[in-house]
Every structure is written in structure tokens, then in C-alpha cells.
Amino acid sequence: MWPTTPRASTRCREGPSSLLTADEKAGFERRLLAWYRRAKRDLPWRDSADPYAVLVSEVMLQQTQVATVAPYFERFMATFPTVRDLASAVPDDVFHCWQGLGYYSRARNLPRAATRVVEAFDGKIPGSVDELRSLPGVGPYTAGAVASIAFGRTEPAVDANVARVLSRIFAVPGDPKSGPTNRTLWAHAADLVSESAPRDWNAALMELGSLVCRAASPACDECPVAFGCAAKERGETDRYPELRRPRPTIAVEDVAVLVESAGGVALVRRPDGGQWGGLWELPRVRRGDGEELQAAAKRAPLEVCGVAVTDLQPLGAIQHTITRYRVRLHGFRGTGDGADLVALACAEARWVAPDAMGAYALASPQRKLLRLARRVDTDFPAP
DNA sequence: CTCCAGTAGT
DNA sequence: ACTACTGGAG
Fold this sequence. Notes:
DNA-binding; Endonuclease III, domain 1; Nucleoside Triphosphate Pyrophosphohydrolase; 41% helix; 14 helices
């Protein structure tokens, strides 16, 4: 059908010389689409052709796996069914819907994108890659995915799945995230993308990467295009893609305090933009080098929101990893005087009635911490 | 514990 | 080009 090692491949890092012939592409397309129609998963966002639903799902799928996204997508679409609903949404409601999904800049950008769609595109998600790229939070991948999947445009879309598939088929050396290798992969994707069924084509390439051409132990015997795969041909599927190894993690310790008073529990809002931007949390500080946990616990509410606590008791600790930090998060509870909070090292600070805390968007480690509090005191509401 | 996944700011 | 940003699954 096509040469066992497509002409593509290794020598050409960029440029149009690495292309398949029309016959080769046709065979590739026929096999992959036939496989996709048989093997595709029934995912919530595949029920709808609404470009807004496609946009929401693709933004949620950025850096986030299908199984994690599915329930969030359904809740989000039920809460903000149209782009106009999202454009006029209260930011806190969007964060609340997004809590636990991670990368919260997406929850800030998506309503901004919706607002732009309403103001610049008359409430209709635009169909061209350039217009899509003008929406905040929409990069090359998301623009290509929405243009092809929602609008049937013949546009490539290279996510990590597609990058893996293509780097194996063409034995593309180098880290897919590096500039030159990334451009090579996009060139292959652009060359291959179907003109008759771009929707299914891009979805199929991603589905293949996710289900068959997996990072670990790819199922080459189930692969509809194994015949033309250069990496398989060489018995080197595990050498592609050449991912750069992650930097080592740094161990740190944080201390957060559940401050209780007559007015409720002290919650503080993280400033937009950084870690957990826009979300709420218990006052928290990094434990200093050699600092006693109790001392850090005393410091946290004082430095973050200007409240002194007495009667500090440990709640235990949880573990989480955030980018390159491996964090042990210690929880304490203590009594505050209920005086006014001052937003010192936070965007906002409030006393919140314990049973009203469910309305606040918290990051996952904070939820876990509150579950510890609940184990100690069963009167405390579950997060 | 290890692995995995796009965008934007600098 | 480099780096920050999360959480869940295995």
C-alpha cells in the first residue's frame, strides 16, 4: 500500500519533501477511518455537533485525560449550556464548576473566550484556525481540533496522542515539544489530514494514540496502520517519541490552618494567574527551613489574613505534587477571634459558615485536607 | 512511586 | 527556548 518505511522519516526534519503519495495517503485514510468507526468510544462530547460543546470539551481535554474530563464536561454543559450563558457567568460559578480539574487559567480564559465570541463573532464560535487562535486559552492544538471536529475544516490538530502516533509512523527523532520536531509533526499532520472526513480523521488519530498506539506497551497487533509504521518496522516503538526526561522534583512542606471562630472558617482567595489562581483555600504558608510545624501554623493565618490563632491542633498531612514540587501539606485547626480579616497575602479573605464552604471552589489538596478535618470532627461538613 | 497531558508568559 | 501551571490513573 505504501513503502514499509514511508519516505517521510528521518532525514528530513522539516519541509515538504517528507510527504506520502496520494495512493499511500488514501490507504492510510481508509484503514484508519474504518478502524475508528468500529473502535471509537462513546464520549459525552461526541453526542453533539455544537461548536461550543466541542470548544468546551477540547479546552477541558488540554493536559487532562478523557476519564477525568467526562463528568466535568457534563456538569459544565448543564450549568452553562450556551456560549452566551458562559459569557455572562459569574467567575466564581465557573471556578466552582472547574474545581478539581486543574490548570485553572482555563477556567478564567474560557469565559473570556465566550465573551469575545459574543462580542466579536455575534455569539457564534468562529470556524477558522486564525479566528479560533484569537480566543484566550485556544492554542494551535485546540484551534485545529475545533476547526476540524466542529466545522469539518481540513486542518491538522497535533496533541500528544497524535504526536506519538506520527513520531512512530515516521520515526521522527527529537522531543515533540521542541520547535523543529514539533514543526515536523505538524507538517506530517497537515499532509495527512483527510479532505473528505477531517472530523473523523483527527478524532481517529487521537483515538488511535489513546487506545492502541499507547505510550507504554502499544498494541501494534491491533493497529490498522502498523503496516506502514517505521518504528514498528525497526522494533523500536519504545524509542519514539523521544520525550525529554522531566526535571527532578523538589520536596517542600506546607502548613494550612482551619481557623474557626464565631463567624465561621477563614477562607482566602488566591490571586489570579499563579498557582490555583482564583480558587479559595485555608491560609497556608511554606514551612521554613528547620521551622517547627506549630510555628508555621501560627504564622500562616497571621501572614495571610492577619488573624491570630490559639489552641492549634494537628489534623495530619496529605501529599500532592504540583509541577516540580512534591508537597507534604500539614493541616492544623485553631481558634481565631472572629475579628475582621485582612487580605495580606491573598486576593480576598472571608469568614465562611462551615456549611457554606461547599459553594467555594477549592483545589484538590485543600479538599483532601478538609476531609482530614472531618475525620477528626465529624460535625465538620464534608468538602 | 511513575506516567501522562497544551497554553501563555517571559 | 524555557518555564509555570495540576490532578488522576496505574
